[in-house]
Design a protein that fits this description.
There is one protein chain. This protein has 314 residues and is of the alpha+beta class. It has two domains: 169 residues, Cathepsin D, subunit A, domain 1; 110 residues, Cathepsin D, subunit A, domain 1 (Beta Barrel). Helix content is 15%, strand content 39%. The strands form five sheets. It has a six-stranded mixed beta barrel with strand order 3-4-11-5-10-9. Strands 2-13-12-22-23-14 form a six-stranded antiparallel beta sheet, with no helix packed on it. The radius of gyration is 19 Å and the shape is globular. The relative contact order is 0.19.
C-alpha cells in the first residue's frame, strides 16, 4: 500500500536525503534482465570504487536505498540512524543505516547522493521476486528526467536542463502525449489522474516499479456495477491477500489510452490505498518522466506480436 510506504519513508527522509545529479549529456543504458523474470525496469549502476549492482527504477517509492550486503561489498562507510528521541530507527526488524556521499555511474551518467538509506536485503527486495541491490526512488526521479522504453529494453538518463522543445524533438517526443503530474505526501511521490469507465476519475501513483496497475476495491466494485469489466475476474492467491484481476474497457491518462487494460484490486487492502499506474500500462509506451517539471510524456509503441510481460533487453 503506497500510503503506508510513503509514511514509512517520510520518517527516513532526513536520514537518506535527496539525490542530486550533476550536469552531463544524456546517457542511454540497457535495462537489466531479471533472473526471476520480474518486469520491473532495472539498470546497472557502478560505484566510484568500481563495484556494480542491479538497481530498480521505482518512482513509486519515495526514497532511494541500498542493501546492507551491497554496502558491505562496495566498502561503503555506513552510520546508524536515530529518531528524535535518540533511539535507533528500525525497519522490518533491522536497524536502519545511512551511507554518506555515495556516487554511482549509469553508463557514464553520474548520480550522487549526499546520503542514501541502507536497509535489510529483504526490505530492498520487497517486491515479489525482485532481485536487486538497490532502488532508485522518487527522490532520484525528482532531480533527473528519465526515459524508459520497455519494448526496446533501454533507459535514458537526462539532466533536467536538457528537456527543452529542441531536446524533446531530437528524442522523438515532439508530438508526445503530455500529462501533468502532481506531488503527493509532501512531495514524496508523484501522481496522475486517470479516467476509467463509468465516468470514474481517480488519482493514481505514477509507479514504474509496480508490475500491475491497481485500483481501490471500492473503485473495482463501481466498475463491476457499471458492467465495465470485459472479462471475468480471476482470483490469484498471493502473499498478503487474494488480489483479483480483471480487464476493463478503457483506461485513459490524458491522451494515453489502453483498451482492455488489466487492473488488480484487493478487498483486504485498506480502502484508502493509493491506486497505482504500473508497468503493465506503461510498457506499451515510450515514457519520459520529467518530474522536475511535473510532467510525463507518452509515445505509443507500435504493436509487437508476442511482446512479453516485461522489458526485452538484448
Amino acid at each position: 500500500m503506497k500510503a503506508g510506504v510513503a509514511a514509512l519513508w517520510f520518517v527516513l527522509f532526513v536520514a537518506s536525503a535527496c539525490s542530486s545529479v550533476r550536469a552531463q549529456d544524456s546517457v542511454t543504458v540497457r535495462l537489466v534482465r531479471d533472473p526471476m523474470s520480474n518486469p520491473v525496469p532495472m539498470v546497472e549502476l557502478t560505484t566510484a570504487g568500481g563495484v556494480s549492482g542491479r538497481f530498480a527504477l521505482d518512482s513509486g517509492i519515495s526514497d532511494s536505498c541500498i542493501s546492507y550486503r551491497f554496502a558491505a561489498h562496495a566498502g561503503l562507510k555506513t552510520e546508524p540512524v536515530f529518531d528524535d528521541n535518540g533511539r535507533p530507527q528500525v525497519v522490518a526488524g533491522q536497524a536502519v543505516q545511512k551511507a554518506p556521499r555515495v556516487e554511482f555511474s549509469a553508463g557514464g551518467f553520474p548520480i550522487r547522493f549526499e546520503r542514501i538509506a541502507v536497509l535489510s536485503e529483504a526490505y530492498v527486495r520487497r517486491r515479489p521476486g525482485l532481485s536487486v541491490d538497490g532502488v532508485l526512488g522518487h527522490d532520484f526521479f525528482s532531480h533527473c528526467a528519465v526515459e524508459i522504453d520497455y519494448a526496446a529494453g533501454v533507459a535514458r538518463f537526462l539532466n533536467a536542463s536538457e528537456v527543452t522543445a529542441d531536446g524533446l524533438a531530437r528524442a522523438g517526443f515532439a508530438h508526445a502525449i503530455r500529462v501533468a503530474t502532481t506531488e503527493i505526501y509532501d512531495g514524496d511521490l508523484s501522481a496522475i489522474y486517470a479516467d476509467l469507465p463509468a465516468h470514474l476519475r481517480v488519482r493514481m501513483v505514477l509507479d514504474t516499479g509496480a508490475p500491475c496497475t491497481m485500483v481501490a476495491y471500492e473503485t473495482a466494485t463501481s466498475l463491476r456495477a457499471a458492467r465495465a469489466f470485459i472479462s471475468r475476474a480471476v482470483a490469484t492467491p498471493t502473499e498478503g491477500g487474494l488480489p483479483m484481476r480483471a480487464k476493463i474497457k478503457r483506461l485513459a491518462v490524458g491522451g494515453a489510452v489502453r483498451t482492455g487494460q488489466e487492473v488488480a484490486y484487493d478487498s483486504k487492502l485498506d480502502k484508502n490505498a493509493d491506486p497505482e499506474l504500473g508497468f503493465d500500462f506503461m510498457r506499451h509506451f515510450r515514457v519520459l518522466l520529467d518530474l522536475p517539471r511535473h510532467t510525463v510524456y507518452f509515445v505509443p509503441n507500435p504493436p509487437r506480436p508476442g511482446l512479453p510481460g516485461g522489458p526485452t533487453p538484448q
